[in-house]
Amino acid sequence: MNLTSRCKKKDDRQALLRLVIVSVNEEEIMNRREFAKLMGVSAAALSGIPLGLTRAAGATKGGTLNTIIQPEPPILVTALNQQQPTLTLGGKIYESLLRYSPDLKPMPGLAQSWEVSPDGLTYTFKLFPNITFHDGKPLTSEDVVFSMTKMLVETHARARAIYSRIAKSETPDRLTVVFTLKAPFAPFLTALDCTTGPIVPKHIYDGSDYRKNPANAQAIGSGPFKLKEWVKGSHVHLVRHDGYYRKDEPYLDEVIYRIIPDAASRSLALEQGKIQLTQWNDIEFYDVARLSKLPNYEVTTKGYEYFAPHQWLELNNRVKPMDDKRFRQAIAHALDLKSMAARVYFGMPKIATGPVSSKTKFYEPDVKRYGYSVEKAKALLDDMGLKPGPDGKRVTLKYLIPPYGEVYQRAGEFIRQSLGRAGIDIQLETTDVGGWADQFSNWDYEMTGNLVYQYGRLFEEAASTIDEAKRQEFYSKVQKILVEDVPVIWMFEAAYPTFIDKRLKNVTSTGVGIHESFSSVYFG
Amino acid sequence: MTSVTSDKGSRAGAVVLAVAGWALKFVAVVLVIATFNFILVHASPGDPAQVIAGQSGASDEKLLEQLRAEYGLDKPYPVQLATYLGRVLTLDLGYSYRQQRTVSSLILDRLPATLLLTATAFILALFSGIVLGTLAGVRAGRWSDTLLTILSLLLYATPVFWLGLMLVLLFSVQLDWLPAFGYATIGVPQTALQRMVDIGTHMVLPVISLAAVYLAIYTRLMRSSVLDVTHQDFIKTAKAKGLKQGAIIIRHILRNAMLPIVTVAGMQAGALVGGAVVIETVFAWPGLGRLIYDALLQRDYPVLLGVFLVMSVIVIALNLLTDAIYRMIDPRVSVRAAS
Asked: B279, A262 in Cβ contact below 8 A?
């Protein structure tokens, strides 16, 4: 089916945007984070030059890293649960074939080198020797094939969308894996990170009911840290895996993830120096300016490149008058994003120009720019015949505030004021996480906020060609069409403040950032 | 003589009857509560499969189906309810697929932390409330009464989370005397004694914050109750007998003034089991309150139902205990009257 016919029906288009599924929400602010990976995130250079992690010369060994995990993950097996806290913690326990640099080039993970056949169908990975699981058993090519082609396609929705394209997998020897794809799929090499493709031990999971396997409590992986103790509601204690395959790594002895549910208490813990690292929105935006002044922390927004989270204002195109392009364009004009970035998010995010993050490869800057103009918004609304009533209101719509913290409440209030100037009256509604997921996935809302990690299905067409120029052409076309049509309002390329103790090095050395294994993190 | 024995016999019979009646009521009330819990919990929008799928970055229909089948949510409600009630009767609280643990182990993990926190705060609040309230009552109108009244009103009006945070700011951040959060130091080997001291220091701030509001309530209540009793005739009689002030307060005033306190304390003791969510959140205390709150947000039905059930059993048990204490303090309340 070609793109234009696909885009004929608005509902379909919006449904496509929602992508691989749907009930995206956001603890989320947090949790969808990993979306980008799917495919939004571009293909990487096919010539796999092993880069190797920049290893700090003379890195000090030892030390305990205290940090936060919030909310508490239900289990630690990333193959079975892909909520954001699970992935943050699980990244230390489970490793995957590749890692990614901040500009999203593949780097060696469990695989020390890789090759792609010229037709883009066959991928050959060579594993590092001497990789062991936490139970002491060796990790071999058999484990890789089992994880990716048997377990993950069963239990991991995002992995399923990618690894189910593997037609044939071979293990010529203990350290070599050969995957043959059903059709060329360029993003394959970018979808082998620890959140998408965690390698699990075959000897534990093969033939078992994965979700009910009693070993899930132990979370046996091959990562640099293994689970020592998990006191529910209090902390997760990880200690170094002595049989780790990278020389001298990991440098840290222990990583302790403390569960601190209250935002104010998290800020206090940081002020007190009890923790050396925060991630995602552990620290609320309104506290960032104040806490940035603390002398012993560095604040960075790096380390989220792989996820490229995009913040949207969802407009349910099934509800009048949001089915009218002019109305959606009016909202795009009426929303003062610049002030919103400054007042609600304290200057952290970058204003988005369209559906694709400027951090990713196929970003197209040459799209229609709306810009803040109440006059243009009013003109479009007049044109539609939506005249202001005696009270100045042209139309009343409900905005469902995503239940993920104070900042969403503030964003909702800003949107109400901003749109109110153009005569669009917004009523704020609240709900909890379960309620939001339910209403959102059943199209039972008018407007709501959303955070998405780029998308997929629409892009499969481009993904199946490995010609970079053709892919760029396709992506650019899609972006232009979508921005003209504004099925949703792309507001910001979300940014998160990561507070890092100045002594702590190498935390955001890859594009996967705080989800990464931390094997090379050390106290300097 | 005979009349006395038969009296004793009928009394024992009454007790047996009363206990049997209680037991019957107990089971009936628990079953009714369990049914209501089930209906309420399932009436909330969304289900655990949706919550998980929504927070997994990407998901599809297959994941939703898998999760719903695993959680038993694909069966009709009456079947789910019948299965659940059957389990309740066999004292099986079920299994949380979300957390891959039995609900009873999840609850047992959290219950000691919560009880340690709430029971300490409760006892502290109750005793100091009774003492301060009595002091204020017998010195009604003097400056010490005014001071206590102002203080207790202030405490009563202070939001508990704010008080907690202010205590942390002062004692942890500024003075660095006490730990700000958690229940113990992690990752340091300790002897049993060191561990007790460690947990004790971690408890100070949450216990004070939690006790503050209750302390205010008991002080106010005790004061007015003492005032009430002080003006009764039998106190005048006691004074006329030439009893000392201390003896009058302890033997006559306190005992009579206690009844309203016991009533209120009995009701609040139940709330203490699950009512410490805010304090547990502010101080990152790994208790039952947060287990409930998280389970609610995640729509973890088995955990929610399990905790609700355990809490209702505790509340019912505490009500029985309150009745018993009533009888100890005031012999006029008889078994017969209570049953």
From this structure: no
- 8-state DSSP, A423: T
Contact yes or no for A158 and B70 at CB 8 A? no
Alpha-carbon gap, residue B328 to A109, rounded angstroms: 71
pLDDT in tens, A403-429: 877 888 999 999 999 999 999 999 999
ipTM over 0.90: no
Would you say B314 and B270 are in contact if contact means Cβ atoms under 8 Å apart? yes
The answer to whether A27 contacts chain B (CB < 8 Å) is yes
**Are A93 and A79 spatial neighbours (Cβ–Cβ below 8 Å)?**
no
Round the average pLDDT of chain B to a whole number and report it.
81
Q: For residue A138, give the DSSP letter.
A: B
* Contact list, B100 vs chain A (CB under 8 Å): 74-75, 211-212, 216-217
Chain B closest-CA separation from residue A195 CA (Å): 10
Pairing of strands A498-501, A297-300: antiparallel
> A30 contacts in B (CB within 8 Å)?
55
Nearest to A126 by CA among A101, A108, A143: A108
Residues of A in contact with B291 (CB under 8 A): 232-233
Domains of chain A: 12-24+310-493 (3.10.105.10), 32-93+223-303+497-523 (3.40.190.10), 98-202 (3.90.76.10)
Q: Which residues of A315-351 are buried (b: 16+ CB within 10 A; e: fewer)?
A: bbbeeebbebbebbbbbbbbbbbeebbeebbbebbee
C-beta atoms of A233 and B296 within 8 A: no
Q: Report d(CA A88, CA A238) in Å as an integer.
A: 13
Structure tokens belonging to residue A255: 């990583």
Q: Give the chain A residue nearest B107 (alpha carbons).
A: A232
Three-state DSSP string of A24-65: CCCEECEEHHHHHHCCCCCCCCCCCCCCCCCCCCCCCCCCEE
Map out the domains of chain B with their CATH numbers.
Answer: 109-338 (1.10.3720.10)
Question: Using H for helix, E for strand and C for coil, what is the string for B15-31?
Answer: HHHHHHHHHHHHHHHHH
Q: How far is Cα B109 from Cα B104, in angstroms, rounded to an integer? A: 8
Model confidence pLDDT, tens digit, residues A371-399: 899 999 999 999 998 888 888 899 999 99
Q: Does A308 touch chain B (CB under 8 A)?
A: no
Residue B117 belongs to what H/E stretch? helix B103-138
pLDDT > 70: percent of chain B:
91
Interchain contact, B51 vs A38, CB within 8 Å: no
Chain B touched by A72 (CB under 8 Å) = yes
Tokens 């197209």 identify what position?
A: A364
